[in-house]
Amino acid sequence: MKLQVKFALYNAITKVTIILVLGLIILLSLETISSHHLDARLTKKRLKLIDNLNAAEIDSLLTSQRSFTDYNILKEEFIVLNIIPKTGKISPHLNFTTERREIEGDIEIYRILTDQFEFNNKRYQLELGEAMTAVESIKSTIRFYMLMVLIGALLVTLITDYAFTNFILRPFYQIIDQKLNKVNDPISYRHENIPTNTTDFKILDESINSLMKKINSLFMLEKQFIANVSHELLTPISVLSSRLENILSDESLQPGHEEKLLASLKTLNRLKLIINSLLLISKVENEQYLKQDQVELKAVLVDCYDDLEDRIVAKNITYSNLIERGLSFVGNRALIHTLLINIINNAIKYNTFGGTITISEGIRPENYVLRIADSGLGMAAEAVKNAFNRFERVPGNDEDGFGLGLAIANSVAKFHGILVDIQSEKGHGTMVSISFPL
Predict the structure, then answer these.
(1) Which residues contact 274 (CB under 8 A, 6 or more apart)?
(2) Digit-coded pLDDT (tens) for 374-417
(3) Where does the pLDDT of residue 330 fall: very low under 50, low under 70, confident under 90, or very high at 90 and above?
(4) How much is the mean pLDDT over the chain?
(5) N- or C-end of the chain: fewer Cβ atoms within 10 A?
(6) Three-state secondary structure along the chain?
(7) According to the model, what pLDDT value does residue 432 have?
(8) Is the pLDDT of residue 51 over 60?
C-alpha cells in the first residue's frame, strides 16, 4: 500500500471516528434535550392551569367525557383530573414519565406530568400529557441527516486527504522514479535536485545524489579495472601461448618435455577462458552492451544447433526443436546467443549417451516461455538452488567446465529482463524455463 493511501486512510479514519463520537453524543443528548423541553412546557402549563383553576373548572373537568383541550384538534395534549383519597403528605416534586396512553380510543406515546394538589379541602391528581410523535419524527429526521452528513464527510475526507497527500508526496515519488527506478547506468544519472519545500525530501534527494556520485566513481574505477585486466592479463597469456606453441613446433623437443608444455598450454587456455567469462559477466552486469538488435529467437536457436551439432552427434542425442511461433524482440543478439548456447551446452554436457533434448514453447498473456528439457543426470535440490553461483559445478560430474555457464546466462537474462527457472530431479533430467516478457 502506498504511503499517500496510508496517510489518507489514517486521516479519514480519525476524522470519521471523531464524527461518530460527536454524532453519538448529539443523538444521546437529543433524547435528553427533547425530554427536558417537554418537561418545561408541561410545568408551565401546570402552573397556568392551577393558577386559573376554580370550582367550576374542576367540576367541568371531572364531569366532562373529553380529556383533550378544546383548542387541540389533533389530540396532541390531554388533561385528566381525578379525586384521590387523602393519604400521606403531598410530594413537592413533580413526576414525569413517558408511556403509551389510550385517550378517547387513540393510543399514543405521551410525556406525562403527574401532580397532586388540594382544593376546597379535597385532594386531586392532575395529569398533563403531550404527545411525543412529532418529537420522534424530528429525531428520526435528524438521525437520517446525520448519517448522510457522516457519509458525505467520509467521502470528502478521503478525496481531499488523498489529493493533499498526493500533492505533499509528489516530490518523494519523483525522487523514486527519476533518481532510482530509471537509473540503469550511473554515468547517465542526473544530479539536479527535485524541486520541493519539504526539508525531509531535500535531505533524501541530496543523500541519493551523494550516494550516486560515489557509485559513479566506483563504476568508473571498475570499468577501468576491466580494461586493465583485458590488457594486462590477456596480453601476457597470449604471448605465453604463442611461445609455447613455437617451442612445441621444435622437432628436437623431447617427448617428456612436450607433454609438460602441452599441459601448460592447456592451463593457459583454461585461464584465458575463465578471464574472458568473468569479463563478460562484469560487462553485462555493468550494462556496457547495447540492446539495439532485432532478435529472432527461432533463428538464434538454429545458430546454436549449428554450433553444437558435433557434440550432439557425438553423444547420439535426439534433438527436437518444437518451436513454431517463436519470438521477436529488441535486445543484444550476441548475448542472447550466449545465453541459449550455454544452457543447451549444459543439456548436452550433463546428458546421457543416446539421451534426448527437447525445446518447446509456451505462450501466456504476459510472457513467452522457452523450455529446454533434457533426459540427463539431473541435479539435487541444493545444486539447483546454487546453480547460478559462479564456479558452481554439479557434484560428482567429471565433465570439463568452470561453473560459469549458468552464471553468464543469468547475467544476460537479468540484463534483458528475462526470468530463468530450473526444475530438476536427480536421475530424471533437467528442464530450464526462460520467460521473455511480452
Answers:
(1) 402, 404
(2) 998 888 888 888 888 877 766 555 456 667 888 889 889 988 99
(3) very high
(4) 80
(5) N
(6) CCHHHHHHHHHHHHHHHHHHHHHHHHHHHHHHHHHHHHHHHHHHHHHHHHHCCCHHHHHHHHHCCCCECCCCCCCCEEEEEEECCCCCCCCCCCEEEEEEEEECCEEEEEEEEEEEEEECCEEEEEEEEEECHHHHHHHHHHHHHHHHHHHHHHHHHHHHHHHHHHHHHHHHHHHHHHHHHCCCCHHHCCCCCCCCCCHHHHHHHHHHHHHHHHHHHHHHHHHHHHHHHHHHCHHHHHHHHHHHHHHHCCCCCCHHHHHHHHHHHHHHHHHHHHHHHHHHHHHHHCCCCCCCEEEEHHHHHHHHHHHHHHHHHHCCCEEEECCCCCCEEEECHHHHHHHHHHHHHHHHHCCCCCCEEEEEEEECCCEEEEEEEECCCCCCHHHHHCCCCCCCCCCCCCCCCCCCHHHHHHHHHHHCCCEEEEEECCCCCEEEEEEEEC
(7) 93
(8) yes
Is the CA virtual torsion 233, 239, 245, 250 positive or negative?
Answer: negative
Residue 204 has pLDDT above 90, yes or no: no
Percent of the chain with pLDDT strictly greater than 70: 87
Residue ranges per domain, the chain?
Answer: 3-137, 202-285, 293-437
What is the third-level CATH fold of 293-437? Heat Shock Protein 90 (3.30.565)
Q: Which residues are paired to 369 by β-bridges?
A: 362, 435
Residue that wins the pLDDT comparison between 87 and 224: 87
* pLDDT > 80? residue 19: no
Cα separation, 404 vs 392, whole angstroms: 7
Strands 419-424 and 430-437: antiparallel
| More confidently predicted of 374 and 126 | 374
φ, ψ dihedrals at 353, nearest 5°: -65, 130
Cβ atoms 312, 349 nearer than 8 A: no
Instruction: Confirm if 430 and 373 have CB atoms less than 8 A apart.
Output: yes
**Is it the case that residue 294 has pLDDT exceeding 90?**
yes
